[in-house]
Specification:
single chain, mainly alpha, 14 helices, 2 strands, MetI-like fold, 308 residues, 3% strand, two-stranded antiparallel ribbon
Length: 308
Amino acid sequence: MIKRSTGEKVFDVINVLLLCFIGFITLFPLWYVLVNSLSDPAAVVGGKVFFWPVGFELASYKKILDQPEIWTSYGNTIFITLIGTAVSLVLSILGAYPLSKRRLHGRKFFNMIMIITMWFGAGMMPTYLNLQALGMTTDGATMLFGFLPVVYDVRWTLIIAFSASAFNTILIRTYFESVSESLEESAKMDGAGDWKVLLQIFIPLSVPALMTVGLYYFVERWNSFFWAMIVIRDANKMPLQVMLRRIIELTTFTSGDSAGGGNVDMTASNTETTIYATIMAAVIPMLVLYPFIQKFFVKGIMVGAVKG
């Protein structure tokens, strides 16, 4: 057994204490919101709640979950998140695979074009005007192929308009570059084409990277708020984050009258706990999901760090 020096022991102690402190300041805000959402409204308003619930009750959660708008918005968010994540992953994979090949003519040029989009953006107003010109900002009739009238579901705007990320595509490309070229050469000698190489070699070997990028896309879609608030006007199409903001506004500025929209029935006495409960309603699904994909995430954060 190797004898550890005093300096190493001191370093370990300081390191553990530092990590515990970082963990505490990271988790405490979430814990604070949780205990306030479970506490008696009077205790919350009186500032008596800090680390443990005071007067445990679930009234705020019941009032939130009793609203049909919440379940509709949950369905919209699940639709946008699942379909959007799948579309984004497919596009990122299809972009990353050819860019990882040195034989691609103009590879450096295409990589540079993609990287430029990370440095410069059109801005909010040009982006909105572009979406508006394409008929992607409101529900209504639009023309497919220039002549076929269809009803466009504005939820697809959040899926299509923001479907690809240059950063995530570069992560997958870098991981693809770490896959041994001999595997591809062997498959090509057996008659496999690029599609077969991609589907049967690169994707199975890149599961950690794809799961990590998928998590990035999933969280981004789940938390979609700004553009959803801008382009969606129909309450039946609103995702969870926008609906929760609406509930918080109604809870803050009204005392039970839902004339501003929705059937939210709140009272001024539990405004604070209701706000905390709405925050937890949006966070809990992600907290439940993360443990199931943590092992892939731990592997995937080293994407491209070590090449074989």
